[in-house]
Amino acid sequence: MKNFFYTFFKTDITRKKQTETSQGLVTEEMVINMGPQHPSTHGVLRLELITDGEVVKEVVPHIGYMHRCFEKHAEKLDYQQIIPFVDRIDYLSAMNSEHAYVMGVERLLGLTDKIPKRIEYIRVLVAELNRIASHLLAIGTFGIDIGAVTAFLWCLRDREHILNLLEWVSGARLLYNYIWVGGLFFELPPQYEERVAEFAQYFKPKIRELEILLSENPIFIARTANIGVLPLTTAINYGVTGPVLRGSGLKYDLRKVQGYSVYPELDFEIPIGKGEMGAVGDCWDRYKVRVEEIKQSVKIIEQCVEVLLHKHKRSPDFDPRALCPSRIRPEVEELYSSAENPRGELGFYFIAERQKSIPFRCKARGPSFCNLSVLPALCQNVLIADLVAILGSIDIVLCEVDR
Fold it and tell me: Phi and psi (nearest 5°) for 200?
C-alpha cells in the first residue's frame, strides 16, 4: 500500500507543469482521477486525466478491476460448458456472443453446412433482438450522460419488451445459454413469431419518437456534433470495429463481409457516419449509426419472422438438439472465428486437440478493448464534460475489456 501511494503521488508531482499566461498568472496542470466508480464511466474503469483547468490534455485509461478469467476457465471446461461463460463476456448482448462462439465450434466440428435453416433463422432472430436491446441501452445511457433523462427512460421501456421476449424463449433475462453447438436449447414457444411481429409493429413508431427527442434536439446536437472526431485512418490504426468504425465512414460489417449464417439471404443496409451535423466520425455520427442499425435490425427481424412462419415452419417432429453432440471431438486443430456483435468484431481463436473435448486454448477478441484504446486519441484538448460524452459514444462493456 505504501508503494502504491508513493508511486501515485510521485506520478502526480512529475506530471505537474507550470505555465505562465499572457496576463502573468502562473497555472499548473492537475491530475484528476475519474473512477473507478464514477457513474459516467460505464463500469469499473479509472480514467487518469491530465487537466489544465477544465481542459483535458491527456487521458490514461486504467483497466483490470474486473477480471473474469474467461480464457482460464475455458482451459478446464468442454466446449458446451463454456457457453454460459461466453454470455458473461458481454452481458448486454449474450445472444450475439453465443452465436459467434457456437459458429466457431461448429466450424471445428465441420457442422457449419449441416445446421437446419430453421435453426439458423431463429439464431439470427434472437441475435437481432438482442442487438436492438443493446443499442437501446447504449443510446439511453449516452443520453443520460449528457442530461437527456427522458431518452433513457424511453429506451429502457422498449428494451423491457425485448427482454420479455428473450426470457420467454430461453428462461433468462440477461444470460441465456440458448444457442448451443449444433442447435438450440429449445424450439420457439407457440405464437412466438406472431408476438415478435407485433413488437416490430409497436416499436417502429417508437424509434421515430426517440429521434424527435434526441436527433432533432438542438442541445443534444450541440453536445455531440464536432465532439470526439475520430478520423478513419486513426480508427483503422487502432483496430476499432462496429458502430465506432462505421461512424467514421467505413462500410464494414461482418454480417455482410463474411456473410455468415443466413445473413446473405436477408435484405439490410450498413449505416455509416456522414457528418450530417458536424464532422464525419464525431459523437453524433456514432449515435446516429446505432439508431439506423436498430432500424435495420427491425427489418431483419421481420424477414426472419416471415420465413419462419411460411417457409421453414415449425414441425412437431423437429428437434432443435438433433445435431448437438454429446461429446465434442474437434476435427480442426486451429481456427479463428468472428461475428458482428453490437460493439464490433467478437472473435474466438481456438487451439484444439484432436479427439479431446476440452480446448487447449480459447482466446477471445473483444471489440470493447480495442474501442477503448482509442479514447486517449479522441480526448486531447477537450472539456471534461465532453470527455464524458466521448466515452458514452464509444459504448464499452468493462466485463468484455477485463475478460
Answer: -60, -40
User: Do 256 and 298 belong to one domain?
Assistant: yes
Number of H helices, E strands in the chain: 16, 11
1 burial (CB, 10 Å; 0-12 / 13-18 / 19+) is exposed
User: What cell was used for 309?
Assistant: 412462419
- Which residue in this structure is represented by grid cell 486513426? 234
Same domain, 12 and 114: no
Averaged over successive runs of 10 residues, the pLDDT of the chain (403 residues) comes to: 36 48 67 76 85 90 86 91 93 95 93 94 97 96 90 94 96 94 94 96 95 92 94 94 95 95 96 90 96 97 96 91 88 88 96 87 93 93 92 91 86
Beta strands in 190-333 (DSSP E): none
Residue 201 CB contacts under 8 Å (≥ 6 apart), including other chains: none
The pTM score is 0.91
* Residue 343: Cβ within 10 Å count: 29
What is the rounded distance in angstroms from the CA atom of residue 265 to the CA atom of residue 303?
10
Give the DSSP per-residue string, 117-137.
Answer: HHHHHHHHHHHHHHHHHHHHH
Instruction: Identify whether the C-beta of residue 273 lies closer than 8 Å to the C-beta of residue 248.
Output: yes
Last residue of a domain, one of 62, 87, 105: 62
Q: Which residues pair with 257 in a beta bridge?
A: none
Condensed to tens digits (0 to 9), the pLDDT of residues 72-103 reads 999 999 999 999 999 999 999 999 999 999 99
Domain containing residue 15: 2-62
177 and 185 Cβ atoms separated by less than 8 Å = yes
